[in-house]
Amino acid sequence: MHCDLLRKAFYTVRQRFEVVAFASSSSEVLTTLRQERPQVVAISSDLQDGVLSGLRILPEIRRTHPETKILVVMASPNKEVVVDAFRHGAVGVLNRNCSFDLLCKAVEVVSQGQVWANAEELHYVLAAFVKSPKPPMLDPKMESRVTVREAAVVRLAIEGLSNREIAQQLALTEHTVKNYLFKVFDKLGVSNRVELVLACLYQEENAREELAAKKESSARKVVPAGRQIATIGL
User: Fold this and answer.
1) pTM score, two decimals?
2) pLDDT value for 228
3) Strand, helix or coil for residue 72
């Protein structure tokens, strides 16, 4: 029913968007992405598969369609859902009870590579990452695009330090720290600290998934010849 309502609503603004498909289940979403390769996917946190099933397929979407921007429409916009959505690849979150106009604006913003979230939701994300026992690290590929001094500023920024605290630790002025950050934002294609933290987080998640895939591949190689393995869906 919700999909049907959205279909009719988006038809009224067809001059702004080209809607390529609608889907209600995880399998339909993944099939549609594979066939259509949309620029943006607006996915509900809860699909026909069950509560939070929309969040569970985000890593797969990010892995197989990294060019597609993900906007999660949350049925229950609590802190855990917001943090998990961003952690698993979303670049925007939106309350399902918002207006259709706001949904359209969110789609346009994430399509441009920007983060969509309100101030409270951004606070959830930054607080969760700062409290993490292992804050996001600056990926070597990203670090190679900035100077040594810029990298030092970025490492402290993604650990949650303010410009003043960074300036004190590195013996710089706050103005200099701000200039370094603006230069880094431009080099890495992000707009603010939140996008910088998310970019670092996504790099870590990708590296973790690649390592898990390698371990799984190695485990398969050591299975004795002639022995079969049965997998059971839980």
Assistant:
1) 0.70
2) 33
3) strand
